From TrEMBL:
Protein name, as recorded: DNA (cytosine-5-)-methyltransferase
Gene3D superfamilies listed in its UniProt record: DNA Methylase, subunit A, domain 2, Vaccinia Virus protein VP39
Protein EC: 2.1.1.37
Keywords annotated in UniProt: Methyltransferase, S-adenosyl-L-methionine, Transferase
InterPro entries linked to this entry: C5-Methyltransferase (IPR050390), C5_DNA_meth_AS (IPR018117), C5_MeTfrase (IPR001525), C5_meth_CS (IPR031303), SAM-dependent_MTases_sf (IPR029063)
Pfam families linked: DNA_methylase
Any one biological process term the GO annotation gives: negative regulation of gene expression via chromosomal CpG island methylation
Xref: NCBIfam families: dcm
Species lineage: Archaea, Methanobacteriati, Methanobacteriota, Stenosarchaea group, Halobacteria
GO MF: DNA (cytosine-5-)-methyltransferase activity; DNA binding
Entry similarity comment: Belongs to the class I-like SAM-binding methyltransferase superfamily. C5-methyltransferase family.
Length: 406
């Protein structure tokens, strides 16, 4: 039996949806505005065979729609229900990861307005929830959403207040949602990546203290025997190389072809680095794992102009990934040499799009866009499916009867 009916807002390429399917839910609707994300979602969640998982996806295509209620032409929750043939009250869980750019440090310096969050998409997300008031809400965002503002208000506080005060018409007790917003590290739930994110779970009718996160399953140094060791880059990538499913030594600019028994993998393609980049990678490897290790060496000439004179900032840029740790946070630029610690642990190339997807806990056959920028964007934007699965596996939200909405 399905654990519950989910609608995924800001669905991207489907990382969160896949986690729900892996945990046994029925994903009955999904909406995003971006064509490449929608196409990737469709190929992997609507058109592919998901029989190996306990859950399912019940529609042929996610919906293209603008969820920003402050802009004209946006879609309402009623419209979403109609598009996916859902009855009012049928949805058990609304999942949503409104994009996080607005919580960046840049916006943090501007004054905080009274009573209003500045973030239109967070605000729109709350209004979409208000139109359905499902049994549970799943929320994911950057860690910065919990940042203190003038010592008191935070975006997360605003979200909590809205959810706690959101009551159903047929609830004389006006209980509202119990809310737990927690900053978690995806590595602590078995994802091969150190990714700090704010995850929110809201359950209608519960008190805040009743809304609990499942215990972490992994730790850097597990002591009590109850947890496993963090999953490392080596655990994931070496396994693929050793099984012969992925080639480690790709030629620059080439994709993987010709492995016996496995289809060619267009997503396992290396960026075409120029010779100066390759020489810089080699130089960094000779002295350590970051451009900073070049300081004071005979290879100092490889330090980029923009880093000369820098002290502690941007240490991860041009960095080499460590086999023995989970990957660093993969961003929407996670195959770019200059954007972080994204150089392969042994090869003089950055990680491929396939390697990035594996480090995000996507299955090995997850199809990615052909365009480099789109491939790394959908991967870097995703919520790791393994994280979602671990967190929602034990939420008990399915109702026997659809709830009537006036
Ligand atoms: C953080 S990503 C979501 C990732 C997704 N949950 C996953 O796990 O793969 C945010 C998504 O919001 C979408 N988005 C941004 N603005 C939007 C809007 N106005 N309406 C609908 N979707 C929007 C982006 O295209 C992006 O795919």
């Amino acid at each position: 039996m399905s654990r519950g009916v989910v609608v995924d807002l800001f669905c991207g390429a489907g990382g969160a949806s896949l986690g729900f399917v892996q945990a046994g839910y029925t994903v009955a609707g999904a909406v995003d505005i971006n064509d490449e994300a929608l196409e990737t979602y469709k190929r992997n969640l609507c058109d592919a065979d998901l029989d190996e998982y306990p859950g399912e996806v019940t529609f042929d295509s996610p919906l293209k729609g603008n969820l920003n209620a402050n802009k004209g032409g946006h879609v309402t929750f009623e419209y979403i229900r109609n598009e996916f043939g859902l009855e009012p009250g049928e949805v058990d869980v609304i999942a949503g990861c409104p994009p996080c750019q607005n919580f960046s440090k840049l916006r943090d310096t501007t004054p905080w307005p009274e009573d209003e969050p500045k973030d239109e998409l967070l605000q729109s997300y709350v209004e979409l929830i208000r139109a359905e008031k499902p049994g549970a809400v799943f929320f994911e965002n950057v860690q910065g959403i919990t940042n203190k503002r003038d010592g008191e208000t935070t975006y997360s506080q605003w979200f909590k207040d809205q959810m706690r005060g959101m009551t159903r018409d047929d609830d004389p007790e006006e209980k509202g949602y119990g809310v737990n917003l927690k900053v978690v590290n995806a590595a602590d739930y078995g994802v091969p990546q150190r990714r700090m994110r704010t995850i929110g779970i809201c359950i209608y009718g519960a008190s805040d203290s009743e809304v609990e996160f499942p215990p972490e399953t992994h730790a850097r140094e597990p002591e009590d025997g109850l947890k496993e060791r963090w999953v490392t880059v080596k655990d994931v990538l070496k396994e693929e190389y050793e099984r012969g499913r992925l080639k480690q030594d790709l030629d620059l600019g080439q994709k993987q072809v010709g492995i016996d028994g496995y289809p060619d993998d267009p997503a396992h393609r290396s960026r075409r680095h120029n010779s100066n980049t390759v020489e810089t990678m080699k130089a960094i490897r000779r002295h350590g794992d970051s451009w900073k290790d070049l300081r004071g060496t005979e290879d100092e000439e490889f330090i980029r102009e923009c880093h000369r004179g820098f002290d502690t900032q941007a240490g991860a840029a041009y960095g080499i990934m460590d086999w023995e740790s989970p990957a660093p946070t993969l961003t929407t630029r996670c195959t770019n040499f200059s954007s972080g610690r994204y150089t392969h642990p042994e090869e003089n190339r950055t990680i491929t799009f396939r390697e990035a997807a594996l480090l995000m806990s996507f299955p090995a056959d997850f199809k990615l866009p052909d365009k480099n920028s789109a491939a790394e964007r959908v991967v870097g934007n995703a919520v790791p499916p393994q994280l979602v699965k671990s967190i929602v596996e034990d939420l008990n939200v399915a109702r026997k009867e659809p709830r009537k909405i006036a």
